[in-house]
Amino acid sequence: MTATRRYPRTGIGYDVHRFEEGRELLLGGVAIPHERGLEGHSDADVLLHAITDAVLGAAALGDVGLHFPPGDAKWKGADSRELLRMAVALVEDAGWILVNVDATVVAEAPMVNPHSAAMRLEIREVTGLPIDAISIKATTNEGMGFVGREEGIAVIAVATIAPGDSDNE
Ligand code: MG
Questions:
Q1: DSSP 166
Q2: CATH code for position 27
Q3: Is 59 inside any structural domain?
Q4: Distance, CA 99 to ligand 1 centroid (Å)?
Q5: How many C-beta atoms surround the C-beta of residue 32 within 10 A?
Q6: How many domains, the chain?
Q7: Would 1 be classed as within a structural domain?
Q8: What pLDDT score does 26 carry?
Q9: Omega before residue 33 within 30° of 0, cis
Q10: Rounded CA gap, 5 and 108, in Å?
Q11: DSSP alpha helices (H): ranges in the chain?
Q12: From the CA of 27, how far away is ligand 1's center (Å)?
């Protein structure tokens, strides 16, 4: 019996974290100088969380909260690079290869673009993607809403996966 043919798929991820005094700000695995960090059970890397959700979503494998429950002591202070690495492994175990990720960080401050090259290198390290398949963009919220009031940072991300080699034989 032939397996059902599979085609590329796309997943979306969205995450928000609130600013908190006295924490280091981590975005895309990079520590960014800022007067505040983000609140969270893990290291609160909102960018990696959105990308992780996009990767999981592409393969319909649930979300970050399902695989890494925030109430679980195991994930307290967790390195979000590890969460993304595990999500990519889950997707690969399901017979997919990750093709690309694209994310937009929505924040009034800090400036993200000066750090995007370093973030892309980190994400390459974690996902194994080529650098030109990793896109990190940034925008402000034009002063509107919770992002505009600088209460937190939001990120949206997409990821595309394609059938792994065993599907192409
Ligand atoms: Mg999160």
A1: G
A2: 3.30.1330.50
A3: yes
A4: 23
A5: 17
A6: 1
A7: no
A8: 97
A9: no
A10: 44
A11: 46-58, 64-67, 80-93, 116-127, 145-148
A12: 11
Question: Whole-prediction pTM value?
Answer: 0.95
Could you tell me the two tokens for 17? Answer: 């974290």
Distance 58 CA to ligand 1 centre (A): 18
Three-state DSSP at 130 gives coil
Determine phi and psi for 71, rounding to 5 degrees: -80, -10
Domain of 114 in residue numbering reads as 9-167
Of all helices (H) and strands (E), which one includes residue 29? none
CA distances from 154 to 47, 54, 92, 166 (A): 8, 14, 27, 37
**Mean pLDDT, 10 residues at a time, the chain of 169 residues:** 82 98 97 96 96 98 91 87 97 97 98 97 98 98 98 98 80
Q: Is residue 56 part of a domain?
A: yes
Determine the pLDDT at residue 132: 98
- pLDDT at position 72 is 85
